[in-house]
Specification:
Strand order of the largest sheet: 1-2
Helix content: over 70%
Radius of gyration: 17 Å
């Protein structure tokens, strides 16, 4: 994949801010700042390697598939959405729009099929990560630090996949549904199923 200097900075900032938002959320919202700083750092590490990595891989997969078709594709952070996510995390919940991969075609048309495949690549990456965390959770169990880490990784990545499969703009689900309804329905079933399963493990 090809990255510009600006894109590298945007990915890094967005990844760190979305990880911080989830770290604050997991630490009890604004109460996180009344806890020992080492605790927030520890939770931030968990958030980065689950939510942060899930977000980054999601966007990179969009970029990879788009570039494989010969399209221009670069990530740009959406700072109002990132700061909104940080603000809401202080209140104990989170809704964030961290940014998106902007795709342009100068001499090749972006067909419905190619757009659908580019769009499904992101949620599929989160489903893959959720399955990896699920297997690891079965291996180590729910108890202990690793259990918490793998459990959160399963929950957040399955949720990211399901959330992005909402079938309206600007979510990925809109393009996937227009391209192939069977693929769309299967992806939704797996993503939602993994998220529901995460609550019972």
């Amino acid at each position: 994949m090809r990255f510009s200097r600006i894109e590298k900075k945007e990915l890094a900032v967005a990844g760190l801010l979305i990880s911080l938002a989830f770290a604050i959320l997991l630490s009890g919202g604004y109460r996180a700042f009344f806890a020992p700083s080492v605790m927030l750092v520890f939770v931030f590490v968990i958030a980065f390697f689950t939510a942060g990595v899930g977000f980054l891989l999601h966007e990179l997969m969009h970029k990879f598939v788009a570039q494989s078709y010969g399209y221009f594709a670069e990530f740009r952070a959406y700072y109002p959405g990132l700061f909104l996510g940080l603000g809401l995390s202080l209140l104990g919940f989170i809704i964030a729009a961290p940014g998106a991969v902007h795709i342009r075609s100068y001499n090749k048309p972006i067909t419905r099929e190619k757009n659908g495949k580019i769009s499904i690549a992101g949620p599929l990456s989160n489903i893959f990560l959720a399955l990896v965390f699920l297997v690891l959770l079965f291996v180590v169990g729910r108890e202990g630090i690793l259990g918490v880490f793998f459990g959160f990784g399963l929950s957040i990545n399955s949720l990211l996949a399901a959330f992005n499969l909402i079938p309206v703009r600007p979510f990925d689900g809109e393009a996937v549904k227009k391209w192939n309804m069977k693929v769309y329905v299967l992806a939704v079933i797996v993503a939602v199923g993994l998220f529901v399963l995460s609550w019972f493990l």
